[in-house]
Amino acid sequence: MKKLHSLIFKTFIGPFIITFFVTLFILVMQFLWVYIDEMVGKGLDALIILELLFYASANLVPLALPLAVLLSSIMTFGNLGEHYELVALKSAGLSLQRIMFPLIIFMVMLSFGAFLFSNHAWPVANLKFASLLYDVRTKKPALDIQDNVYYKDIEGFVIRAKNRDEKTDELQDVLIYDHVAQNGNTRVIKAETGVMTMSEDKSYLLFTLKNGSLYDEMVGDNNPFYRSTFSEKIIRFDLSGFNLERSDEEIFKNNYRMMNLSQIEEQTDTLRIMLKARNAEFINGMKGFLILEKDSLHLDGNYANVEYNPNWFDELEKAKKVQYLNWSLNTVRSMETFNEAFVSDLEYRDQFISKHQIEWHRKFTLSIACLILFFIGAPLGAIIRKGGLGMPVIISVLFFLLFHISSITGEKMVKSGEFSAFAGMWLSSFILTPIGIFLTYKATTDSVIMDTDFYKKFFGALIPKKLLLKLSKKDG
Asked: Is the per-residue pLDDT at 303 higher than 50?
């Protein structure tokens, strides 16, 4: 029995590892395609790009892992069925559940590992990824001076070159505006040619100019003007602003995606207390408006007449009536504005709490999804009895799309307030669990749900024989 379990485990683990990394690679390439415009032209170091891709791949594990489990389980049991190994094992008295036993143990361990990853590694990866992506987005583009284009990314300077020799990388007809003193175009350098080189530590750009002039207009009452010529002049530009500056990760730590279970629970309790206090503030504010409305009816100070005389308003002068009506109208408008602002704020706070609850449930949904998809993939592979990358891939994609679409739909319904966090985040599990139970039952009882001959006989029994004879005569 141990040899059998070892054989089944070895048959499964190879396709699982391959499909996991292939799926992860495809998802990372999709990420790279989305963010490629923000990385190109910024002179990023290869290690920075690899670090960003590493954290991005960690973020994509919740998508790659369930798909790898589903595909590899279909492939494994499809291969066993295709080579009649399942038939041999069942004829020896082994049930499908007994054959699946070593992989069930492995799936339980994998689900526990997925939970640990979601609770500990995933928040850290999200934090590192968000911080590094922000730094990449805010980094200045690499130094690139084009023909007849004013280059302004070096702080304090504007550079224009008429032509750039592609062979010697020499700039011709160079014009530099020095704005360091922030006095406008009062200092201008013009040269026939120029060559750019980097300092040894790459923190400065050395611009060697030849055969040029310097124009300097002094700021003052008489605005004296100076002009000097040079045969060679070296200008040093500080390039520290072009380096990738790493942000403090503490800035991003308060985001719910960067928290583990205990941190999310603590933050959610705090948000609920704040929401409750905000509700009390809203009620007190509305009471204040009601008191103000009541006081607005006593402008003449005669409380007795207003309180007990039902016809007090009809007895007032026209000017007094207009005054009361304007006062009441302004109060109602203020109440409406106050109410709309508070309702919007309360809805935002409630949605923010829902987002924390979504992340709390997400820590568990990944683990359960791996188990559910295994109990869909393994019996489905035993039913279709097809291995390789043909039919298993098609079926895996269909079931994974069902899982992914239902997960996204449930999450969106939670954010819109239509579902509770529990119902929305576990929607995919509620849909797929009955399918897994049904397929496991059918595979255990040697179902024929994938047998085309069965469906021909089934539908043939439903169609009258006379109709079949007529159709056969027409074909003849």
From this structure: no
